[in-house]
Amino acid sequence: LALALAATTTLTACTAPAQNGESMTGIVPAPISADYPDRAPFTLDSDTRLVATGEGAAAVAETFAAFARVSTGFELPVVEGSGESDAAASDIAFVIADGEAPDDEPFGAAEGYTLEAGSDGVRLAAETPAGLFRASQSLRQLLPAEIERTDAAKPPADGWRVPAASVTDAPRFAYRGSMLDVARHFFPVEDVLDHIDRIALLKLNVLHLHLTDDQGWRLQIDSWPELTGIGASTSTGGDGGGFYTKDDYRRIVEYAAERFVTVVPEVDLPGHTNAALSAYPELNCDGVAPKPYEGVEVGFSSLCASPERAEATDRFLADVLGELAELTPGPWLHVGGDESLATSEADYLDLVRRITAAGAATGKTLIGWHEMGASRDLPAGTIGQYWDFVTPREDAAALTTSFVEQGGGVILSPADVAYLDMKYPDDPDGPLGTKLGQLWADGPTTLEESYAWEPTAIVPGLAEADILGVEAPVWTETISTSPDLEFMVFPRIAAVAEIAWSPAPADGGSRDGASFAGRLASLGTHLDALGVSYRKVGGVPWA
Ligand code: TNX
């Protein structure tokens, strides 16, 4: 906590720098460098073509065109270019070629890009489709907010202008995640797709889906059909159940992949399993299925470690993780491992050994919450996800470095700054939405707190290279609708996205909160146009 306070940045209300006489402009997360020279802007109009050069460029251009056609009503044809000269002043060039990204950055080749805009056209360039897509999301933010409209928008008074800009960019961390708990409350496919679109705007590249918990099992598993029978019939608070069929799930994965977002599915084991236990008596030590659970307690359920249940339990693990891996093109499976408070240490370690063996047999790299670091025989490369506070308590730091000692990396989700289900402070202008959320992780949590932390300063001994990335989870015990979800997630997720993407502050100093607030206000206009019901926290000059 001392660290969190010491690092606190004040988000002073600021007037964002005006570019070319336009109102606020800026990109969230902050690029490595962004200059807005005092030159004539680009205007996207009915003549604009998207000129794609290099393998994979046309698909990225098509994703952008499909988005921009809706609001602008323009045709925006994607044409194959054979070189720069093909692009006219009204065109947007999408270029993939070697040497087009900042190669002195660790992830420059993977996801870096450059963006040049002016009256002679727009040029987006990268070495990979992923980098080119990130560039297109910067362009999206530089366009007028009306570009986000999902119906035909009235063109902005000055046209679809992009200020003259010169941007060089690459991410700081490879893994930049948003976690959505669809187990405590179920969110339909359309809500998940909307969420993916919004996190992609912030250059996040992982959607971690917390698919199972005590209150519900949300993914069809053919070999254990009751998981989505009884197991999916409930949620927290008696709000009804739901689950994704395999086709639903494939749709989510595909929509995410088009935005270069990897889905990381989580089946939480061996605790947080009441839904599975309620569906299959043979998974319970006493052979009796418990009732479905609709409360908010944690830590009371577990798979059975007893040898008498070993056959059923190991078959369950192999079947579930096998079917999950088959649906997962990405490299990771998350197997949970948190808050197994209903098992002895010995039983926990035995179950973790069996869970991770079944997981590793699928060929995927495993991720577990930091408690899983208690095991000293994790499969090679297993990733730990840290959820304790900015200042570690008890043995959280040692459990986390255990993953690094065993050849894996770490994802940081410090709960007191990155858990987006923590309450906001009360709103002096009215209690709008403050009924939502929890307080346990040193809540309420302000936007400033979500912005003022440094990944390398949390777990002693973790080097930059040990940190795979950063993730902002949203747990949904108190959140049951898409507007409520948006309210808790935005704007704090933008702070976490900036920590995950943007360069570390120079010389261990603090981030420029005034710059962030100004750019966030600009992002807010886009969220408004998207109809996102975010919380207009104080300290930001919202339009
Ligand atoms: C902790 S920290 C949990 C979740 C709860 C959340 C509520 C961790 C890995 N698990 O089970 O939903 O707190 O904020």
TrEMBL record:
Domain Glycoside hydrolase family 20 catalytic: 173-340, 353-503
UniProt keyword list: Glycosidase, Hydrolase, Signal
Domain Beta-hexosaminidase bacterial type N-terminal: 26-170
Record field: catalytic activity: Hydrolysis of terminal non-reducing N-acetyl-D-hexosamine residues in N-acetyl-beta-D-hexosaminides
Keyword RNA-binding annotated: no
E.C. code: 3.2.1.52
Protein name, as recorded: beta-N-acetylhexosaminidase
Biological source species: Agromyces allii
